[in-house]
Amino acid sequence: AQRVTQPEKLLSVFKGAPVELKCNYSYSGSPELFWYVQYSRQRLQLLLRHISRESIKGFTADLNKGETSFHLKKPFAQEEDSAMYYCAPHNYGQNFVFGPGTRLSVLP
Amino acid sequence: GAVVSQHPSRVICKSGTSVKIECRSLDFQATTMFWYRQFPKQSLMLMATSNEGSKATYEQGVEKDKFLINHASLTLSTLTVTSAHPEDSSFYICSATHPGQGAHEQYFGPGTRLTVT
Question: Which residues in chain B have their CB less than 8 angstroms from residue A32's CB?
Answer without folding.
Answer: 104
